[in-house]
Amino acid sequence: MNMKRNISLTHIRRSPMMIVIALGLLSVLGGCNLTNTVRPNRATDGAISGVSQSAPNWWLESKASVVDARESVVNGDTKKVQASIFSSQAQQQRFSYKFEWFDKNGMKVAGMDAWESVMILPQQTIIIGAIAPSPAVSDWILQISDTNYPWYSSAP
Amino acid sequence: MKHKTNMAVATFALSACFVTQGCRPTQYVDSKGTDLVVSMNKVNIQDFEKASEALVASMVESGVLLQASRQPAALSISRVTNDTSDQFDTDQLMKKIRISLLQTGKVQVTQAVGLGGKVEDPMAKETYEAKRFLAGQSQTPVDLPDFTISAKILENSTSAGSTKQVSYIFQMSLANTATGRLVWEGEKTITKQGEKNAIGF
Fold this sequence. Notes:
A: alpha+beta, 2 domains, B: elongated
């Protein structure tokens, strides 16, 4: 009887600690809104020879991994970019992305940089793309983000 | 001991509350960020942003702006209709379209003529006309637009149980005034689904 009582008391004492750990974990995850960044690797002639991914958010990378990227020119002088995104997840997922643009001096060119939200099916590869805002654009980066956590979505 | 533990629980609970959305204080957010309010019953600023970028990208990619006999081509804005239940100034869309088109360097917006004789900048029109008069060019044709843009924004709402869905359909046409024909048309549909407004997308 005493033994049962001791176990029960220990369980009660542990519960607040479990709550503390859970809340702490929740806080960390809630603030963990890391963006993955993809940059084109360029050959000496400026052509794309692959991409480099900076992926601090491993969960996001598992559902939105850039397989390849390519460029073309439209309207005679404006860069068009497309990238293939693969999801290795077993369930349908969502993510947001945007392109950022730079001129030949590495200065950011504003425009055509709104976040776009897309859905991706399990094991699917989708194509995303954008047109540069100006003929002055010579380079770009792709940012992929995931903000819609279950505990981070409801407006008051 | 028990008192200390309870204090720790309360402290962590408050911290978690502030980190997540529950007790969020008023703050500035990035107007182009992903933590904006997503409304079920109105067009949000990010919707205008997405629609304008998609339509401009389609128009630029089509190459029609190069059809004009002069570069950059002169553009004028024709009728823009908001046929949704949300009352908003259509300039929230059209200004973004114009900014993006001007940035391409392929078009310039003329203030010599406007829909119904009205232009956005009357001073620019009056000065232009005065300079033409002083130069003895009053009888020559004004700077007529090579292209005109017209647009319409529509709404489609439906629901299943407590889940609502609303689609805002942005339609746009570009007419070549040399032929009177529509040379490009674009459409961007933005669909939102849920039970209530939310933050973040």
